[in-house]
Write a structure and sequence with these properties.
This protein has 118 residues and is mainly α. The protein is built from 4 helices and no strands. Helix 1 runs antiparallel to helix 2.
Length: 118
């Protein structure tokens, strides 16, 4: 165990980050392709572009979470809840390595968000 994280976790996060960056590059290249002049083919390409763009947004969000986790490792805050400051359970870290909240604070945030959408 290093700091507040399991052995090999930093390397796994860095590898996942590199894979996501490569995927995002492919997605970006795909979206930038020129569109066909045929209206039916163009419509299909636009529809596909929306799906690809959504995948790109997911990749960007995950990259952001990884970057924040790596930054917390650098500052020594990784594994500590950003809300209450307690040690995040190692099982939670293993299951969700981007976790910046303990399960209790994460559940409370989820309940608050659920009430906001009623």
């Amino acid at each position: 165990m290093h700091g507040n994280w399991p052995e090999g976790l930093r390397e796994r996060l860095e590898m996942t980050k590199a894979e996501l960056e490569a995927r995002l590059d492919r997605i970006t290249a795909n979206v930038r392709q020129s569109l066909e002049t045929d209206s039916k083919e163009r419509a299909k390409q636009l529809e596909d572009s929306e799906v690809v763009d959504a995948l790109g947004n997911e990749a960007r969000a995950e990259l952001n979470k990884i970057s924040l986790a790596l930054r917390r490792m650098e500052t020594g805050d990784y594994g500590l809840c950003s809300e209450c400051g307690v040690q995040i359970n190692q099982e939670r870290i293993r299951a969700y390595p981007y976790a910046n909240e303990c399960i209790d604070c994460a559940n409370m945030d989820e309940r608050i968000r659920a009430r906001e959408f009623r």
